[in-house]
User: Fold this.
Amino acid sequence: MSSAPEDVQGASDTERPVEMMDYFMHLEYRELVCPIVLTYAAALMRGKILGQISPKSGLVFVPPRSYDPVACVWLGDEHLVELDDRGVVTNFTIVTPVQYYGQEKTEPFAKASILLDGPGGTLSLQDILEIPPEEVRVGMRVEAVWFPESERSIDEIGNRSWGSAAGCIEGWRPTGEPDLPADTFLEKVY
Amino acid sequence: MCSTPAVADRPISTHVIEFPYTRTLGPVVGPFLTGLRDGTIRGIRSRDGRVLVPPTEWDPNTGDALDPSDVVDVGPGGVVESWAWVTEPTGKHPLQAPFAFALVRLDGADTALVHAVDAGSIDAMSTGMRVTARWRGDRIGHITDFVFVPEAGK
Assistant:
């Protein structure tokens, strides 16, 4: 889709030949949010993280998605479990932001996968707070930093928001507990 | 980006994907859009003498390279060869009131250009009708620098 004229910039010169064209691809779509995602979002607003535990594989999925893609079984409300808001970093990426359109960050930051305590379940792409990104490590113990209840929002949570708790959990901070060796949680990483 | 209404509302999430980019236009489309900015519609003469509008770098029938120096002025009047009425334009359409998308063969051209016709009413549209370009005041070298209007209503 090419841009509407008001989106086009830099071609207002009335003398130079037109040699370049600015495009602005814009796609907006709407979709029904799955009931289980609404249940998950409502719980986040109350400060609870919900997942679903599969009776077949024993794996925990967070956010819940009403099926276990590993064991190929449907999951229902009866499989909902409340998960701990503490866990361990099982993987992370340090992003050095390139200033492309829409990038609001200017300094390097870490995005981490966090395996929650208790029955498990991994939230991915979580922000690590209070320490510089180069100090993030696999095995680090962390706890959720919730936004105050009055400031929480589920605006960014949809069917495709992956492990998002954005709008309700600001990020995760180190607890100061000793790191866990990777082999203690390796089989829970999936 | 996406936004989800409050849980009690209708459970619909809205997602937006945006991607700005710039492309070069090349030796034929560049002069075509430069012409539009300057208020002229241009085509290109193929080796067999036909005039193609919009102009292309290659003959679509034979694949032969065309010579950018063979760009020629056409229009601004032309004939509607086919058309479809757009009853409910979206924000991305060239006109915000109901209009026609039409294949318009400009005077001096052998092929038809797809463009909008601001006819006001579906009843004003017919195959074979004459149209002419209505230029924007603030032209930038973009296909939306003009739309067609019925020639009688110019």
